[in-house]
Design goal:
By secondary structure, the protein is an alpha+beta fold. It contains 8 helices and 36 strands. The chain folds into 3 domains: 97-225, Prolyl oligopeptidase, N-terminal domain (Methylamine Dehydrogenase, Chain H, 7 Propeller); 232-322; 328-574, Alpha/Beta hydrolase fold, catalytic domain (Rossmann fold), CATH 3.40.50.1820. The termini are far apart.
Length: 575
């Protein structure tokens, strides 16, 4: 059965399901706000609008036998506030835990969370009993980033990750006040996903040291067995169906995802959502069935039920984007022959439209075959838009992702130059190009403008590091090991946009959050000042009360970008 859900202009974001019935909690975006909702998948009723906020929701789930909802909100400083909503009385109560909670996961009446101690490098992990209010510290983190990977069905166990760098981490299994270091009983070097079967047993999709992806079965306290190896490298998660002794495998390969059923021998048995061309965002087990959220370039996120028989039923039907511009998926070669994939949104009304190349953040992220409002707006404003997945992007295998280790700029900037050359071969434009990016994408945009000034007419950088030395000193102390891996030598200055300031000539729009705890705001101001000294057109937009999340300042950003792009195009036409 499928239901239209009224009033959800921005569509579904994340969801969880109750164990006992078909209730679904989901967050949605509506008019620059995020909303937490309760939906009955049997009746199609939107039963409660639980909370609205300008910030992002963190963890949320049912508690107290589905009578209440626990949820957290992440503010601009990336700190969580916590609330409990009573479904009967519709009363919201704030739970005061700590003012330095950065991550958490709730299951039943237990909340596991990470507390970033601002006076040290420690990221300690705590367990809160929501019935009694009792808080226990269960792990004392050292330097590195602690996170909760997953929690068992009734909250008695949890998998904790301690990340020291992108390639070095510790996986810990907590149960009954005991912590088991999974590295001490296995050769696990990384974990992709965890699927709890009960309170003491889980399936792990992970990678052995210098090895392929494998599936492991872990039984507390010390039994770990490798069930299969050579699992497809781009696999995102694997869930086990004990009733059928089969597996559901989500593979993120390039810009589109695939959903497979694997048999007892771990070989491909069936393709689910056959013919689907889009992105699989989340998958959850509900008894013998699965609930999956997907989206495509024409459709907002929707939830499907996959029956144990393999039958697929669409549960929600958020409205289609009937006027969407459908991008083509293009592939070309970079300087060293590496294959690069890009989405191309073509302006069919104006073949000679200027080209904007949008660079994603991360760098460990990717542009996907899903609806994105930004390229739609830019095409409607008269541009062609390209979204390349350069070196460092996810979804192309481990080696592709690690190409930025030790050198953040060389290979990705070569990929962007190759993108420009490819666009010219397609006949899109022989003029200069505009680069647009946020976070790492903003950094890479500035780097390319410095390295290839004859190719770039304009740059929009939202929160991109301008001086890597200042960036390394500014990030949270728990990131120190990751910084050493990304920038192992002392030549970070030579990889900074500031290093290329003398050959820089592009018109520039710099948009930065005053309260950004990741990228130093003052370094961006100083970069802007240097551009002005060189008589380069540079506009600086200060986002007051904003950190590294720009979603709360969309109106201000939109206005600045529209004005800047108009000026750049007018300047190019005069030349």
């Amino acid at each position: 059965m499928m239901y239209e859900i009224e009033g959800m202009e921005g569509g579904l974001l994340e969801f969880v399901t109750s164990k006992a019935d078909e209730k679904i909690l989901f967050s949605s975006a509506v008019n620059n706000l995020q909303r937490l909702n309760l939906f009955d998948s049997y009746t199609g009723d939107l039963e409660h609008i639980i909370y609205e906020t300008k910030y992002n929701f963190g963890s949320f789930n049912f508690i107290d036998n589905n009578k209440k909802v626990f949820f957290s909100i992440i503010n601009s400083s990336e700190i969580c506030s916590h609330f409990i909503y009573d479904l009967a009385s519709e009363y919201v109560e704030e739970i005061l835990i700590s003012d330095t909670v950065t991550d958490g996961m709730c299951m039943e009446n237990v909340y596991y969370y990470v507390d970033r101690n601002s006076s040290s490098d420690q990221n300690n992990v705590f367990k809160l009993d929501l019935n009694t209010g009792k808080i226990d510290q269960i792990y004392e983190g050292t330097s590195g980033v602690s996170s909760i990977l997953n929690v068992s069905p009734y909250g008695e166990s949890a998998i904790i990750s301690q990340m020291y760098s992108s390639t070095t981490f510790k996986a810990l299994f907590y149960h009954s006040e005991n912590i088991i270091d999974l590295h001490s009983i296995s050769k696990l070097s990384s974990i992709q996903s965890v699927d709890f079967l009960n309170e003491k047993e889980c399936m792990i999709l992970g990678r052995e040291e210098k090895g392929s992806l494998c599936i492991f079965r872990y039984i507390y306290p010390d039994q770990i067995t490798k069930l299969a190896e050579g699992i497809e490298d781009e696999s995102y998660c694997v869930l086990y169906n004990s009733d059928l002794n089969k597996w559901v495998n989500v593979v993120r390969k390039g810009v589109v995802d695939k959903l497979y059923i694997l048999g007892e021998d771990f070989k491909l048995e069936k393709v689910i959502l056959d013919g689907f061309k889009g992105v699989i965002h989340d998958i959850q087990k509900v008894g013998k069935d699965y609930l999956v959220s997907t989206s495509s370039v024409k459709e907002r996120k929707n939830i499907y039920r996959i029956r144990s028989s393999g039958k697929v039923e669409k549960i929600t039907s958020f409205s289609l984007y009937e006027s969407s511009i459908i991008p083509s998926i293009e592939t070309f070669r970079s300087k060293d022959g590496t294959s690069i994939e890009t989405l191309l949104y073509k302006n069919n009304e104006y073949d000679e439209a200027p080209v904007i190349i949008y660079l994603h953040g991360g760098p460990h992220a990717a542009n996907r075959y899903q609806f994105s409002i930004l390229p739609q707006i830019l095409v409607s404003e008269g541009f062609h838009v390209m979204l390349p997945n350069f070196r460092g992007s996810t979804c192309y295998g481990e080696l592709f992702e690690k190409e930025v280790y030790g050198d953040w700029s060389t290979k990705p900037s070569e990929d962007i130059k190759a993108t420009i050359n490819f666009a010219r071969k397609l006949g899109l434009s022989q003029d200069k190009f505009i680069l647009f990016g946020a976070s790492y994408g903003g950094y890479l945009s500035l780097i390319c403008a410095g390295k290839y000034p004859d190719l770039i007419s304009g740059v929009i950088s939202m929160g991109g590091p301008t001086d890597l030395e200042a960036f390394i000193k500014h990030v949270p102390s728990s990131w120190s090991s990751m910084m050493k891996e990304w920038f192992p030598s002392k030549n970070s200055r030579s990889m900074s946009p500031l290093h290329y300031i003398e050959q820089y000539s592009s018109s520039t729009l710099l948009i930065y959050g005053e309260d950004d705890i990741r990228v130093p705001y003052q370094a961006a101001v100083e970069f802007h000042d240097e551009l002005i000294k060189k008589n380069i057109d540079s506009t600086f937009v200060k986002l007051s009360g904003t950190g590294h999340d720009f979603s709360i300042a969309t109106s201000q950003i939109s206005e600045a970008c529209t004005s800047f792009l108009t000026e750049v195009i007018e300047k190019e036409q005069l030349n």
